[in-house]
Amino acid sequence: MIADYQRLCQNHVDAALQQLLQAPSTELERLYQAMRYSVMNGGKRVRPLLVFASCQALGGNIKQAYGAACAVELIHAYSLVHDDLPAMDDDALRRGQPTTHIAFDEAYAILAGDALQCLAFDALADETLSPVSLEQRLDMVKILAKASGAAGMVGGQAIDLSSVGKTIDQQTLELMHRHKTGALIQASVQLGAIASGQSTPQTMQHLSEYAQAIGLAFQVQDDILDVISDTQTLGKQQGSDFEHAKPTYPALLGLEQAKQYAASLNHQAHQALADFDHNADQLRHLADYIVSRRN
Predict the structure, then answer these.
(1) 98 forms bridges with which residues in the sheet?
(2) Are 148 and 75 in contact (CB under 8 A)?
(3) Spatial contact of 251 and 243, defined as CB atoms under 8 Å apart
């Protein structure tokens, strides 16, 4: 069931992304080639899926959430481009293909990442892609900006870089991942709820609790897969966390306890949706998918 929903949502968001990633002039074609390569070169589209599913959970139509779905995927893509750079994680493989700085060069990778970040906010603020009130679009921009910056994803990457080769406790590890991975996942759910036009403070609170649980579960499962999977399945170098001496949940808790923790977080996510009706079933399926995926 989730596979069919995933394909449906991927088709919708990919079509919208293709439109956004057309070069406006021949002089900018190489830059846009690097941008398209970074965004359209595969990917599970988990964050757009969460946008669409949270919009539908509150009775909205996914067409109301195109701007938010594109925005979170563009931010995610930009973060991967920059994280893969030699100054950061120095990775050569992403989604089974050479990373952007390998396929193009470092300068174009940096520029592509910068441009994708800006394009995300352009898409989110576009009233055609985000047909809600001006005030709601402003709220959406603020949510995405906070989740993307020092209070969210960028801050998490900073903690990650400063933790390499060090022994840290579970509290610090969770702080890092609630910023680095969890913040954008939480923003995806919140943006979808606002796009529905039906959000209330109570539903936003429950959806935020759901998102916090799956955001952390996503990273725990990523850490587990880095141990038990292989490079071909992952689409990136297996064992890279160990190679870079990064702190992970299996290293801190042990592999079996890390798996139990992921299952516990999945249960928390389902509990957060207890008051939602069948319209939230895709969110429930996504929570299960996040802790059972193999790449």
Answers:
(1) 93
(2) yes
(3) no
**Using CA atoms, how far apart are residues 60 and 53, in angstroms rounded to an integer?**
9
Domain count, the chain: 1
* Domain that residue 225 falls in: 2-292
E strands within 95-213?
A: 97-98
CATH code of the domain containing 242: 1.10.600.10
Interval 202-229: pLDDT, tens: 999 999 999 999 999 999 998 999 888 6
Residue type, 133: S
> How much is the pTM?
0.92
Q: Where are the beta strands (DSSP E) in the chain?
A: 93-94, 97-98
Q: Is the dihedral of CA 174, 176, 180, 184 positive or negative?
A: positive
| Nearest Cα to Cα of residue 283 among 24, 26, 56 | 56
- Among 252, 255, 180, 170, which Cα is nearest to 219's? 180
